[in-house]
């Protein structure tokens, strides 16, 4: 919905009825079609109809242009992804996108994409080489340490053997030398492989190697402390350096296949210590060179992304607008000469002049020799529903639309919901301390709305920000009802005057009203604070809130039925006035309107009558004497009359309307063998959204069954809906008791220990319980219950909600939506 304040060229905002709509036809020359749609998108007051619905997207006139725009949109998304990874923020748009040409944008996007892809490819290759060299360096270090330690160990063992042999007998020398010479001929040259294997696979890797070679290997592994970047995946991984000794080419082949299966990277290694040192020096030098090259490449890439970021928003908006324009042009049909495009769409009546001005400007700016033609078509099709709202009323209208979009020019419940919704919420949430907390949180959102509206918020925060004015109204009404209930975090305060009651003597207890006498005038506003904490507090408040809930419910249901009268009057349906509105008013008020009157009389007179007994026996034994339950004179006679009226109103709702509609249908089509031809300018005569009454085939059985269901629903709903309003009493009581429990069992309990630490803990628990339970969960609970009372109990009395929303072609929505 467009937000409008009601000033300037537009008429004053009216939420009671949706804007008068018209079906318009535009005949636009081909040379000015693009600019015309662009200007209408800026205006945002035309909902185009698809005149090519029978064609597939590939058969339409501008399919090639849409494909072209889609390719440019892909490049823009690619740039956005690259900028996000690099942490580059796009700058705000300083110039208008109308000043740039789409062809220039296409060429520039192609050049920048090719350059960026090439830079990324080169950087990936360099980074892979760098990561391989880093792994190679680790292998040289760890394997070199292993070979060095093995060499030192072998040298020490050799010296030890030589020292032992020096002290042996010379007679045994030849035999020992002969044995050694024989053993030396049996020595085998062992090969080895080095590399890195992921640490989580190292044990399985070692076990598979052992089994595959039947134990004819020797393997050593060393843990690398820091994670390394894998050259293949580019992700950090914990790895071990391994050295595998083997004998024979067959064993080597098996080991190579197992390394490949486990993703182990192998690197060459030399036994020669001098060669190892030379390789380490070469690898370190190449790493330094690669690091310098990679840094230079990243710097160039970042400068390129900053260049893209300067123009990103401009290009993004231009591409989105062009794509939206061509999508809309594809909904237009070519005329017979193929020189003009014909468009049809809905627009508000007040927008006719702006649309014609936009058409004229487009024709002038595109140097078209022929202007566009604007004409209004007559149609029986039901128009879309369009309410012009502002930032205050839009959230309430969204609440109503969530139930169902109003039928065209149907009475809008949102007018009353602006007040009744926050008020019913406050009846269940009445505490002026909690209301102030809600108000402070909402004022933060309202005062910073300009900054917050331009930021991306979370789902819950986005929802709260969108309904900030509704929450403000809810908090204000909560403060009001909290003052009536005299509750501030469950505590009463004598704000307006001292209590009207006082103790008779010093011995009276705080836990009872016995001994209290009235010494002053009645407490001027709300509940007397003396009721708080007494034994009779709960029965008194239960009685008060229960009766108040019934009064509020009956009042709101009566308002809903009265709205049905205004709907019937607006649509000139006398049948609905006489056989729907009047019987419904009689039925509801004969029963529950009468109950509401009894409640008020009882409050005013102080009568002790049992209203439960009165209402039950009004049905079971209407002729019995009332006795002590009589509230006013001639009550029995009044009850008999009301009961009779309620019973008579039911067949009045059920029977007359179907027969009258049947008679009207027959009279309308009597003597008509042929349907008269429609005028040629009526392009659409099929009613797709309206009611079928009055034309076409008339099914009396369907109408009668529908009326029967509607009557049963209303009669049963009158009872159930009235009982449903008792949730106002139940949730108000629950909120009050929860607040009292948190205060007494947490805060006062902690205060009683005379310990600072316990008091601090108690205050923290109290604050979190109040915020989490009372200000969040209870707020949500009361919100949902108020929502149900409006959707079910109030709106079902008059609101059909079977319309469809006006969705104009507008660049505002195009700029805001994500791909």
Automatic annotation (TrEMBL):
* Keywords of the record: Coiled coil, Hydrogen ion transport, Ion transport, Membrane, Transmembrane, Transmembrane helix, Transport
The UniProt entry lists membrane topology as: Multi-pass membrane protein
Recorded GO CC terms:
membrane
GO BP annotation list: proton transmembrane transport
The entry's localization annotation reads: Membrane
User: Does the keyword Transmembrane feature in the UniProt annotation?
Assistant: yes
Q: Which residues form a coiled coil?
A: 102-136
InterPro entries, sorted: V-ATPase_116kDa_su, V-type_ATPase_116kDa_su_euka
**Residues annotated as transmembrane:** 423-447, 468-485, 548-566, 578-601, 637-655, 756-777
The family assignment reads: Belongs to the V-ATPase 116 kDa subunit family.
What does the UniProt function comment say about this protein? Essential component of the vacuolar proton pump (V-ATPase), a multimeric enzyme that catalyzes the translocation of protons across the membranes. Required for assembly and activity of the V-ATPase.
Name of the protein in question? V-type proton ATPase subunit a
Please tell me the species this chain comes from: Cardamine amara subsp. amara
